[in-house]
TrEMBL record:
A cellular component term, taken from the record's GO annotations: mitochondrion
Substrates-to-products reaction catalysed: L-leucine + 2-oxoglutarate = 4-methyl-2-oxopentanoate + L-glutamate; L-valine + 2-oxoglutarate = 3-methyl-2-oxobutanoate + L-glutamate; a 2-oxocarboxylate + L-methionine = 4-methylsulfanyl-2-oxobutanoate + an L-alpha-amino acid; L-isoleucine + 2-oxoglutarate = (S)-3-methyl-2-oxopentanoate + L-glutamate
Gene3D superfamilies in alphabetical order: 3.30.470.10, D-amino Acid Aminotransferase, subunit A, domain 2
Species of origin: Zygosaccharomyces mellis
Gene that produces this protein: BAT1
The name this protein goes by in its record: Branched-chain-amino-acid aminotransferase
Cofactor: pyridoxal 5'-phosphate
EC code: 2.6.1.42
Length: 373
């Protein structure tokens, strides 16, 4: 019987750049436009399994024009961040969750699985090579982009027998230079992001390209992002490329409810989403709060806004962490989401952002959510 090689971090080969680059001034960092000196690449074939991992200078990859990724979208990616702590250590935030999701994405499009711990070790080695480029300071981090492609050459539609896994890293600053900036959303039912039985819960590149045109259409009307609705019920699912949370107040009990859509296969299993739910369940007083993953619709939001029961709303994702929402365009009107007086967010939005940031920057420990590179 034939046995194939597993992903093995101990086989790493390193080819360093001749000269390391200087860090860019922090205020010049535009999200995802600056990359570090090195990349990690690992080739896979069905016959041999995972080849030896290589860290080499950042640069172009070469693909046959018939490569299956270019025709049939055999592509998936991840997004996670490494943070520099005040003591100068570099820590990864919940990398296991991203590895778990990456394996699920791979399985769905017939790309190879791998040992999560081995890839985390390799990502650690990659970050170590370019450690001097991990920016310092609140809001700054190293965005890590693991990517996997099917590289089988040929136009027949079938499972890839060759693949490339690579990781690039990008020093990033705060999404909004002036701290939080609340956004306007257009409730969107003229396009659908994901549907039951589809792949909306997987981090496939193919989920992202079709979202750009609806985003431009929203922008033409003066809204930054789409609030994605689903079905005739007009369920609220996600916002832009992020998960979304709403806060309602029950007028009878005075209790507040933090709500986000349930993971039913149409919702990306966001690591920030999970972190917000976990911390809220641990830290918000259950006498004052309910935390629910449940279906809710734009009709409910519009209705409760009229009654003064809509308290706040925010998006959540790795890139931006939390993104406050101030207005939602729906049926020709704007639903106003309250903000704190003179501020760009609501109270809970600020609170969860500070909880998460304390853990990400290593000021606070939470389970094993951060690990030193
Ligand atoms: C996120 O981190 O929220 C994203 O999904 C954005 C990424 C696609 C740039």
């Amino acid at each position: 019987s034939m046995s194939t090689s597993r992903l093995d971090a101990s086989k790493l080969q390193v080819k360093r750049v001749a000269q390391r680059s200087e860090p860019k001034p922090s205020d010049e960092l535009v999200f995802g436009k600056t990359f570090t000196d090195h990349m990690l690449t690992i080739e896979w074939t069905m016959d041999k399994g995972w080849d030896a991992p290589v860290i080499k200078p950042y640069g172009p990859i070469s693909l046959d024009p018939a490569s299956c990724v270019l025709h049939y979208a055999f592509e998936l990616f991840e997004g996670l961040k490494a943070y520099r702590t005040e003591e100068g250590k570099v820590v990864l935030f919940r990398a296991e969750k991203n590895m778990e999701r990456m394996n699920k994405s791979a399985a769905r499009i017939c790309l190879p699985g791998f040992d999560s711990e081995e890839l985390i070790k390799l990502i650690g080695k990659l970050i170590e090579e370019d450690k001097h480029l991990v920016p310092k300071g609140q809001g700054y981090s190293l965005y890590i982009r693991p990517t996997m492609l099917g590289t089988t050459d040929g136009l027949g539609v079938g499972y890839p027998d060759k693949a490339l896994l690579y990781v690039i890293t990008s020093p990033v600053g705060p999404y909004y230079k002036t701290g939080f900036k609340a956004v306007r959303l257009l409730a969107t039912d003229f396009a659908t992001r994901a549907w039951p039985g589809g792949v909306g819960d997987k981090k496939l590149g193919a989920n992202y390209a079709p979202c750009v045109l609806p985003q431009l259409q929203a922008a033409e009307k003066g809204y930054q992002q789409n609030l994605w609705l689903f079905g005739s019920e007009k369920y609220i699912t996600e916002v832009g490329t992020m998960n979304v949370f709403f806060v309602f107040k029950d007028p009878k009990t005075g209790k507040k409810e933090l709500v986000t859509a349930p993971l039913d296969g149409t919702i990306l299993e966001g690591v920030t989403r999970d972190s917000i739910l976990t911390l809220s369940r641990e830290r918000l007083d259950p006498k004052e709060w309910e935390i629910n993953e449940r279906y809710y619709t734009i009709y409910e939001v519009a209705e409760r806004s009229k009654k003064g029961e809509l308290v706040e709303a925010f998006g959540s994702g790795t890139a931006v962490v939390v993104s406050p929402i101030k207005e939602i365009g729906w049926q020709g009107e704007d639903i106003q989401v309250p903000l704190l007086p003179g501020e760009q967010s609501g109270e809970l939005t600020k609170t969860v952002a500070s909880w998460i940031s304390a853990i990400q920057y290593g000021k606070e420990q939470h389970d094993n959510w951060s690990r030193v590179v």
